[in-house]
Amino acid sequence: MKTRGNDEEKSRAAGRAAGYCWARNPNSAGRCTLQPGHDGRHVDHNNGRKRLTDTSGSTWA
Ligand SMILES: [Zn+2]
């Protein structure tokens, strides 16, 4: 049986391979795009920006 946990594990591994922290944003779709092991809050640069010129989007702890 295919489990969501397995998919999560695979997706996270793929994100890490691409050089991202890739932690799931609990508040919306999207994942952390900072480097693995970063300090401070997680940041998703691809989602949650109000304007295209915003440098970062959603953040979460
Ligand atoms: Zn992160």
Verbal overview:
The chain has 61 residues and is of the alpha+beta class. It has one domain (4-60). Helix content is 23%, strand content 10%. It has one helix spanning 4-17; strands spanning 42-44, 58-60. A two-stranded antiparallel sheet has the order 1-2. The protein is globular and about 40 Å long. It binds zinc ion (ZN). Residues 21, 23, 32, 34, 38, 42 line the site of zinc ion.
Distance between the termini: 32 Å
Q: In total, how many beta strands?
A: 2
Strand arrangement, major sheet? 1-2
* Spans where pLDDT lies below 50 across 5 or more residues: none
Give the biggest beta sheet: 2 strands, antiparallel
Percentage beta strand = 5-15%
Question: How large, in whole angstroms, is the Cα Rg?
Answer: 12 Å
Bound molecule kinds, no repeats: zinc ion
Give, in order, the helices and strands. HEE
Shape by Cα distribution: globular
Q: Which percent range fits the helix content?
A: 10-25%
How many H/I helices?
Answer: 1
Integer tally of domains: 1
Mean pLDDT: 88
Structural class: alpha+beta
How are the SSEs placed, and which strands pair?
Layout (H helix, E strand, L loop, with lengths): L3 H14 L24 E3 L13 E3 L1
The site of zinc ion has 6 residues, from loops.
Summarize this entry quickly.
The chain contains one helix and two strands, in the order H-E-E. It has 61 residues and is α+β, with helices and mostly antiparallel strands.
